[in-house]
Design goal:
The chain is of the alpha+beta class. The protein has eight helices and 20 strands. The strands form three sheets. It has a six-stranded antiparallel beta barrel with strand order 2-10-13-12-11-14. Helix 3 runs antiparallel to helix 4 and helix 3 runs antiparallel to helix 5. The longest helix is centred in the first third of the chain and has 63 residues.
Length: 475
Amino acid sequence: MAKKGKKKIGCIIFIVIFIAVIAGLVIFLMKMATKGIAMLSYVPYGEVAVKDLSEYVNVSGNVSSSDSYNVTAEVLQKVTKLNVKVGDSVKKGDVLCELDTTSLQEKYDKLAASAGKAQDAESYKSGILRRNLTDAKNNKASLLNKAQNAINNAISARDTAYDRYNLAVEQYNALIEKINAGEDESGELQKQADTLQELIDELYPKLPSFDAAIEEARAAYTETAETADKLIQSAQDAIDAEQYSTGNDSVDDELKELQEQIDACKITAPADGVITALNVSEGTIPMNNNLMMIENTDSLVIRGKVNEADILRISEGMKCEIKTTATEEEIIPGSVKRIERILSSGSDASAGGYTVEISIDDPKSRLLIGMSANAKIILSKVENVLSVPYDAVRGGENEGYFVFVCEPADQQGMVKVVKKDIEIGFEGDFFTEVTKGDLKEGDIVLTDFFSDTTTIEDGAVIPDPKMMKELKNAT
């Protein structure tokens, strides 16, 4: 019991001391303000540090295989045996699935047994007609898929157009509010508003055309379906009408074709890889010829989009640093493998971009197909250089560059702002190299700041930015 009492007393003493320190700090800052020392609620700052600096372009995408194989079927028959599932590894030649050969074998046996008879020749013709029927059905699926893609593209284009229009209206209204509030003394906001108004006037008349394009694509889909159904019915009518034939000179060819179809019912892997997509299940008839997808996991890539502003800055062979959520902070090496210098989609780069393929150069990486990844394409890089935050550098090329450094002042809790001239070198995305100047690692430099009461200049005495940040966090 006595020990618990001591712990409580210790906690109370600590709390009292903490409150006293905070109160003393607040009183001290109030005294500084009464003495005419300008106070800032918070002065952003950074530190001089030795860093590796780089300029890069970000690319986001998913891990996929550079080599993929679409496993197809020559005939559409019921799947009697399925030997794989998504994620399975396979070797070239492995039997992936088997299709029902019953009807084909029956047709073959019948044609072979009656090869010298007229009905055998007609059976051969019937086989051709059935194949035509199968082709007509397959063509219908392919054409409808294309027609559906046209609808999807029209919807996407419509949505993009409306998004651009709505964004322009939203930005215009925001600028008008600022102008009406008297925030446009320079007239710059009005110029921006006028530009947006021109864009709105340009986009608005075009919007109905995007809706019309969707309706046209849907009408084309309906027409395609009707045409395909007519072709299927025509093929079926030919089968129904042609049951027999008087010729038998091509029976051997029919038997050969049937045997090839029977052999094709055993689907094998065209290459080593992993099953990444499966469009069939055991006991069902495939909807189309595309049965499954095999991808080579030994050759992985990341495919992502680069906008118009950056595409000309990159080239094949550039090194990349790859990170994923799954591998956390691990940096995986890569390089730009291929650049598609054709806009992927949309009417401009903002709606799509240029596809870039980045190879994963570490064969032992733990990356898996489908993982989302972020890659930095390194445009240029320097290592182990003295640097300051990018927004701490002031001045310009003509008048020279400088930074404001915080040095100890006579007053407790205060620092003196000292202007120091510097020369800069490599400019990274967030930090700038300092090639010359009286700076050392660990120095505190002021970054961009604004104050309603004062402008900080060389020699100004201000509260220690670190202390102000700690006070802000404490309160």
